[in-house]
Amino acid sequence: MSATLSTQQKPPTSEPTGTTPALQLEGVRREFDERPVLRDLSLTLEPGATLAVLGANGAGKSTLLRILATLLRPTAGTVRVLGHELPREAWKVRGHVGLLSHEPLLYRDLTLSEALRFHARLHRLGDRTDERIAELLAAVNLSRAAGELVRNLSAGMLQRAAACRAVLHEPDLLLLDEPTAHLDPEASDLVSSLLAPAAGRSRVLVSHDVQAALGAADRALALRPDGSVAFEGPADQLSPGDARAIYAGRA
Amino acid sequence: MKLPSLRATAIAAVVLLGVGYALAFFYAPNDANQGFIQKVFYLHVPLAICALTGFIVAAVFAILHLRSGDAKYDARSYVAIHISVIFGVAVLITGAIWARASWGKWWVWQEPTLVSFLIVFLLYCTYYPLRYAIADRDRQARYASVFAIMAGAFVPLNFIAVRLANTLVHPRVFATSEGGLPPKMCLTFGVCIAGMALLWVTLVRFELAAKAARGRLRRLRRALEGGDAIAGGGSRIAPAVPTATSRP
Amino acid sequence: MTAFRVILAKDLRIELRTLESVPAMALFAVTTFVLFRYGLDRSSLAGGLAAGVLLATVLFAAIIAVNRLFVAEREEGGFDAIRLAPVDLTALWAAKAVALFVYLLALELIAVPIFAAFFLDSWAGIGPLAAVLVLVDVGLGAVGALVSSLAASSRARDLVGPLVLLPLLVPLMIAAANAAQPLLAAGGPSYGDVGKWLLILALYDLTFAAIGYAVFDFVVED
Q: How far is it, in rounded angstroms, from Cα B72 to Cα B51?
């Protein structure tokens, strides 16, 4: 399955992805009602690399993903995604980012293929729509469910469908919040290969499976429960033991 | 532009209003038709004009808030609406008094100006439940500004619609075709409206200053008690007036 | 333009499939007519009274649809989905406004003939009345979509929506009632002042369409 830019009609990015970092964050802070959820976060991610984000619940991981997806603005600090500064240039980033979060973002009263076609049309896939949807559904074994209403799908099927939705428009940056939740081992493998690293595609991966996440990542970010940074650097410098300590709030 | 101090504005307002109402009682002549009770006009009309202008001012602050993202404009918009609503209550009460004295009934539906004002007043009353219903402060401020803009545009539309739908009963005191206001009344009216406008400005600035002080107190308390302490007090809806530099 | 069509098509498709709004509105309208027949103790209406009953009923039926308009977007992630795509967010407001307009037209296609059968002695005024109702529906669509989006993210949304919406709709009501009154007069329709009121309706529609267009981005962003 190709993830390169040449096969589609997206609006072009204004800078070559080969030289600009996929992510550049400096002093990023996010508050809700004056309560800080992310504090003084800085990191850089090279294009094509994977960043693992670890931390206990409430540490701000989902908030970080939403900021990178342009759905939330930082209270302070600068965020550059794919070379574009948010929130000023957010409109240039949309369409190049794929988000897989806890909500599948599929309308429950549409059939699976109608729901995917909705996203495809919003992302202006044009003539390639049907072909692309069929290709993705086949990759996760959901071809037979294409005519089912989304509300009738099981949790595992929904997760697979959401993964298809996330990569539908071949984004340059994937934001994955526990992508293999609700999945049995076989389905988990299918989804993982769909979301695997590929040329030109950077990834941010949030997972509670510390071992697997660190193994799949180039860089790691660990957040303490209060939102401050416990560790930020190459993934091989963070041992699973340390990571678990951070989860428990001990480091 | 350095604004005059709050005390100066307050004193000016009191002086002007005092002079204005003294003029109303002792200097301006009694109205030929309505007699002494017509003098409530010097209270009712300035209140109404200030309230309606206040709503438009709030809409302007709301536009500034949305464009700049600076929370201080939200605070100003909120306070402008707050004071104008309070003035609005006074408008409706003095309007009812005037109606009772002139036409014998406490409320007259054929009176387009008063009815139109009632509708505007009801609309701005819904500002409060709207703010209370949104927990996230940031979003609350944005939605409040959207509302203030909608409501500001609504005021003239509403006035036109109601006016066209009713025959004119409200005394058209400024109508030149019917003789208009004699100069003594004009002067008195002018002083009264200037005083009322200053009163509005004074009350708005006073409330903003009070909010700023409360906000500073909360921040100090939070700093003393450590970063994550939940600062008590503070209304769920009243926007805090920021003193530090605002969000980018 | 495409985003507008995609979102509108999605909404109409879901409504056709689930029939959540229009049948409820129609049922409400017919029941309300029956209520008015006994509440007013009249079996025949004309002029101002007929206009008032019909318009008040349409207005309250509209509130049913307004309350539901953004529910799917909020609960099924529609806001996120649309904001992640490279589309102009105003398309969402426009699509919802037009969807609401369509639901109201559908309601009126059902309710107005029934109203005429219940209360009117002559159907002559119904044709021109349609023009009035179309303008009312445009206004309801524009304002309803905007207020619904404000209410969608708040607590007690079924309360806040109608509370803010009703005062805003008063000038629309006034203009529509004054336009409809001579059309439903007992002796047959007369067109004297109608033009003036249709102009006011159009002014209201334009104003709130412009406002909706201008401010909707601020409602959806975070």
A: 21
- Measured between CB atoms, does C131 come within 8 Å of chain A? no
Cβ neighbours of C179 in B, within 8 Å: none
Split into its structural domains, chain B has a count of 1
Q: Which residues of A touch C83 (CB under 8 A)?
A: 70-71, 94
ipTM of the complex: 0.89
Distance from CA of A120 to the nearest CA of B (A): 30
Residue of A33, A72, A86 to mutate when probing chain B, most B C-beta within 10 A:
A33
Report CB contact under 8 Å: C171, B157: yes
C-alpha span between A243 and A227 (Å, rounded): 15
What is the spatial order of strands in the sheet that A97-100 belongs to?
Answer: A97-100, A173-177, A202-206, A50-55, A219-223, A229-234
CB–CB contact B153 C156 (8 Å): no
Nearest to A94 among C76, C85, C221 (CB): C85
Q: Is residue B198 part of a domain?
A: yes
Q: Which of A34-38, B199-203, C126-130, C149-153 has the lowest mean pLDDT?
A: A34-38
In this prediction, residue B175 has a pLDDT band, given cuts at 50, 70 and 90, of very low
* Mutation site for A-interface testing, chosen from C68, C70, C84 by largest number of A Cβ within 10 Å: C84
Residue of B nearest to C151 (CA): B130
Q: Please give chain C's pLDDT, 222 residues, in tens.
A: 689 999 999 999 999 999 989 999 999 999 999 999 989 988 889 888 999 999 999 999 999 999 999 988 988 989 999 999 999 999 999 999 999 999 999 999 999 999 999 998 888 888 899 999 999 999 999 999 999 999 988 888 888 899 999 999 999 999 999 999 998 887 778 887 888 899 999 999 999 999 999 999 899 887
C35: left (phi over 0), alpha (psi -120 to 50) or beta: alpha
CB pairs under 8 A between A and C: 69
Instruction: Tell me which chain A residue has its CA closest to the CA of residue B138.
Output: A33
A contact test, residue of B68, B70, B137 with most A CBs within 10 A: B137
The CA-atom distances, in angstroms, between A87 and each of A73, A81, A179 are: 6, 10, 26
Containing structural domain, residue B103 = 3-225
Q: How many domains does chain C have?
A: 1
CA B169 to centroid of chain Cα atoms: 25
Can you give the three-state secondary structure of chain B, one letter per residue? CCCCCHHHHHHHHHHHHHHHHHHHHHHCCCECCCEHHHHHHHHHHHHHHHHHHHHHHHHHHHHHHHHHCCHHHHHHHHHHHHHHHHHHHHHHHHHHHHHHHHHCCCCCCCCHHHHHHHHHHHHHHCHHHHHHCCCCHHHHHHHHHHHHHHHHHHHHHHHHHHHHHCCCCCCCCCCHHHCCCCHHHHHHHHHHHHHHHHHHHHHHHHHHHHHHHHHHHHHHHHHHHCCCCCCCCCCCCCCCCCCCCCCC
Instruction: Note the pTM of the prediction, 2 decimals.
Output: 0.86
Put simply, the chain A residues between 153 and 212 with a CB less than 8 A from any chain C CB are none
DSSP H or E stretch at residue C37: helix C22-39
Largest CA distance in chain A: 53
What are chain B's partners, defined as 3 or more CB pairs within 8 angstroms? A, C
Q: Has residue B110 been placed in a domain? A: yes
Find the CATH number of the domain harbouring B34: 1.20.120
Token readout for C152 is 């969608």
Chains in contact with A, counting 3 or more C-beta pairs less than 8 Å apart as contact = B, C
Containing structural domain, residue C38: 2-220
Confirm whether B85 is domain-assigned.
yes
The pLDDT value given to residue A70: 92
Specify if B237 maps to a domain. no
- Note the pLDDT tens digit of each residue in B42-58: 889 999 999 999 999 99
